[in-house]
Amino acid sequence: MKRMIIAVTAILVLLGQTAFAGEGNTFRLSAGSSLFYDSVNQDAGAGGYLTLGYRVAPSVELEVYGATSNHFEVDNDLTRGDASVSMVTFGARYLSSMGDKSIGYISAGVGVLELEADDVPAGTDDSRSGGVARFGVGVDFPLTPHLGVTCGAGFNRGFGSTDEIILFDLTTALFCTF
Q: pLDDT digit string (tens) for 107-166?
């Protein structure tokens, strides 16, 4: 069953690529490293991220962004120790040519953030989920027509039950378009 799902997905992607060939690259996948900085506790944590994008207009791309961090110090009612942060957002990127080959972008999204504490007493909940708003800027540097490097910076603000979370991030990744 898995093989059949993968095969059908691959066929649909190839057919979709043929249908949109006149519009240029339509899908975008990027994966790389990120560095999160908590300005309240002045602590940093390394992690990784993955984005999937779909171009809906020449300068607009819908995007799903997922990121996770390793453990860094958090001081709130859940824990006063190490915690990790994971988030998934849905948003958009506005793309603008910067001359030669580089493409600048502004991104915004909203989604879910999970804070998971390491050191909590036995029998208590070690995680909390809430909303997150994400804003970012960056630059894509294409190396070939379908492969490139992207660098960016972002601001992530939790809301709801994670409203104490304020994170800045720096990201670097490889991306491919098809």
A: 999 999 988 877 666 666 677 889 999 999 999 999 998 999 999 999 999 898 888 888
Whole-prediction pTM:
0.79
DSSP letter string over the chain?
-HHHHHHHHHHHHHHHHHHTGGG---EEEEEEEEEEEETTTTEEEEEEEEEEEEEEETTEEEEEEEEEE--EE--SSS-SSEEEEEEEEEEEEEEEE-SSS-EEEEEEEEEEEEEEESS--TTS--EEEEEEEEEEEEEEEEEETTEEEEEEEEEEEEEGGGTT-EEEEEEEEEEEE-
CA dist 91 and 110 (Å) reads 6
Question: To which residue do tokens 């709130």 refer?
Answer: 76
User: What's the CA gap between 8 and 22, in Å, rounded?
Assistant: 23
Amino acid at 170: L
For residues 99 and 58, give the distance between their C-alpha atoms in angstroms, rounded to a whole number.
Answer: 16
Q: Can you say how many angstroms the Cα of residue 103 is from the centroid of all Cα atoms in its chain?
A: 18
CA distance 72 to 162: 16
**Inter-residue contact 73 to 82 (CB < 8 Å):** yes
By mean pLDDT, which of 1-15, 36-50, 55-69, 145-159 is the weakest? 1-15
CA–CA separation, 71 and 62 (whole Å)? 30
